Amino acid sequence: xxxxxxxxDYDYLFKVVLIGDSGVGKSxxxxxxxxxxxxxxxxxxxxxxxxxxSIHVDDKIVKAQIWDTAGQxxxxxxxxxxYRGAVGALLVYDVTxxxxxxxxxxxxxxxRDHTDANVVIMFVGNKADLRHLRAVSTDDARAFAERENTxxxxxxxxxxxxxxxxxxxxxTQIYHVVCxxxxxxxDDPAALPKGQTINIGGRDDVSAVKKAGCCSA
Length: 217
Description:
Family: Belongs to the small GTPase superfamily. Rab family.
Protein name: Ras-related protein RABA1f
Oligomer: single chain
CATH architecture: 3-Layer(aba) Sandwich
Membrane topology: Lipid-anchor
Keywords: GTP-binding, Lipoprotein, Membrane, Nucleotide-binding, Prenylation
Subcellular location: Endomembrane system
């Protein structure tokens, strides 16, 4: 699980969004996961960017299409289009800036207002390498995640700490949601044609099966 693949050979395509205040390190998390790169001179994202990476989950190849946008109010007009079809999200705050932690509740509400109840959410405290500047305790963040029923991890895009783990866990959990939904409705996944849309809920979903094959729980 977690092996990098650069080609288009995949079984499932899942849209995952990065959300959180500007400057919390969303773009560097994306760059570290998809290209294993980090830029100290990274500038704030303008508009929307996305990148892809594939991993193995069980015996399937799961491809993530990860969307990143500026966490600034003037770009909020893109909200509906940005969230449409997302089945997973990383909600990121900066452990050295308490205000970014205070704002996660608003981000979480917006995410849940625009996605299905089955969306998989990873709460991410980034810049954990800046230990001497920490302003948000791990215990406080974990308590928030438990209260909101989300996953939680602290990361450092600079040190590549837990970055792969964060994305891989989200993709693995999405895969398991899809498998459970398939079993619940009694569909035969082997009968799905290429490009069949995966419906894990009531929202418009751009995630899809590319090749026929069964989920294994």
